Amino acid sequence: MSKARSILASNRRARREYHILDSIEAGMVLVGTEVKSIREGRVSLAEAWCKVEQQEIFLVDAHISHYKHGNLNNHDPLRPRKLLLHRKEIQRLQKAVEQKGNTLIPLKLYLNHGRIKVEIGIVQGKKLFDKRADMAERDTKRQLERTLKQY
């Protein structure tokens, strides 16, 4: 029954708020109760972002709820989590972030052959008119599909 890749959480807001320039897969350093809580789907990437610090990348403000069967040693829900990447990948992401307007945002959290992975996107913020253009494009697509369905 295990799929090669099953999505546990996605950041739908990121697709609406940002232009996604590139993405990369990274592993995460997690505690046991975090893994169990993520597998239950008790994770939110809505406010999360990534920062590069001393040749390491950290996932910040990702909310992983307490594991309900955990004990007093349960994890902190908002602690920064280290991401596992090769040195060249980290350097590439660091160069991308140093460019004006770019940032790192987690896009998806998923299981890949039993391991929890996060997809990080190099993104650039959208302006209000970009968001309106995207909404208009979606509406016209939807309208076109409706008319094709009728005929």
Can you offer a commentary on this structure?
This protein is α+β, with helices and mostly antiparallel strands and 151 residues long. It has one domain (5-126): Small Protein B, Chain: A, CATH 2.40.280.10. The protein is 32% helix and 38% strand. The chain contains 4 helices and 9 strands. It has helices spanning 12-17, 32-39, 87-98, 128-150, and strands at 5-10, 18-28, 43-44, 49-53, 56-60, 63-64, 81-84, 102-112, 115-125. The strands form 2 sheets. The chain has a 7-stranded antiparallel β-sheet. A hairpin with a 2-residue loop joins strand 4 and strand 5 (56-60). The longest helix is centred in the last third of the chain and has 23 residues, at 128-150. The radius of gyration is 18 Å and the shape is globular. The mean pLDDT is 87.
Q: What distance separates the N and C termini?
A: 40 Å
**Helix and strand string, N-terminal first?**
EHEHEEEEEHEEH
CATH homology group: Small protein B
**Total strand count, please?**
9
How many helical elements? 4
| Parts with pLDDT < 50 across at least 5 consecutive residues | none
Query: Taking Cα atoms only, what radius of gyration do you get, to the nearest Å?
Result: 18 Å
Strand arrangement within the widest β-sheet reads 1-8-9-2-7-5-4
User: Per CATH, what is the topology?
Assistant: Small Protein B, Chain: A
CATH architecture: Beta Barrel
Reported for the largest beta sheet, the result is:
7 strands, antiparallel
> What number of structural domains do the residues give?
1
CATH first level: Mainly Beta
Share of helical residues: 25-40%
Shape: globular
Structural class: alpha+beta
Hey, roughly how much beta strand do the residues contain? 35-45%
Average pLDDT taken over every residue:
87
